Please model this.
Amino acid sequence: MRQLVSVDIGGTHARFAIATLADDGSIELGEPETLHTVDHASFQTAWEDFRERKGGTLPRNVSIAIAGPVGGDVIKFTNNPWIIRPALVKEKLDVDAYTIVNDFGAVGHAVARAGDEHFIHLTGPEQPLAEEGTISVLGPGTGLGVAHLYRDGEGGYRVQATEGGHIDFAPLDLIEDAILARLRKRHNRVSVERVVAGPAIVDIYQTLAEMEGKPTRQEDDVAIWTRGMEVGDSVAAAAVDRFCLSLGSVAGDIALAQGGFGGVVIAGGLGFRIRDTLLKSGFAERFRAKGRFESLMGTIPVKLITHPQPGLFGAAAAFATEHPE
Model:
């Protein structure tokens, strides 16, 4: 039995937990602690905060899931100003072994290891994710994470993190044309992350409000998401539904690009919060609407992972894979 600190760092939150790797390969997570990235000048100061919360001592192994590319001598986060220098991790954190993995690479590990009870069926055939073949994983949060994993049919798997959240956005109707036109006033190139990540609801909402001739005001995405999930604000509700449509389109595109015909998994805290809306929205129709490949898309099981901490669980699984005893 081994213990490690499992860390999942996104644009808004840094989550920490003590993970136990049992001899039988199972993983148990302790109670997670969530820190706001804006409250800490660096990852090291956040680490020290967590260490104090745990009484001043931590296990001497760490696995860090990072929202951004993880190669190179200096790792920069996509949506927060922290940096990590892998060569200094052992010294700065006082650990013996470490793993650094892309955050959606970690989610890929979680998808590979989580039981069927940790998934909700969204669309496609009601069957488990394939035991052999490629499974696509994506999820909206502060950004849009994308990964995929390949199962070999014998219990083994490989995970590949990607930056698929930064492929070009392709509008499918006049409303999405208007959303794209709005975004292109600020961005020379509009990626799918600009449309199907949490903050994107602001531009979607303001586009719809302008089309309705209603005044708009500066407000954050949390306020719009809150109104959109409640009864009373029809424009905000339409923005949430439009978000679900675009997410379905992007999920289908990712599956086609990756060959994710063994299944598609939606992950991320935002995906979980809007799960009921996804089921009632046009997500499924948009996922399948791929022209000549519509019949093929209808054969893909699409799931939502409900594990409470897939990033932390997956980071621990990545460490176990990289550092087998």
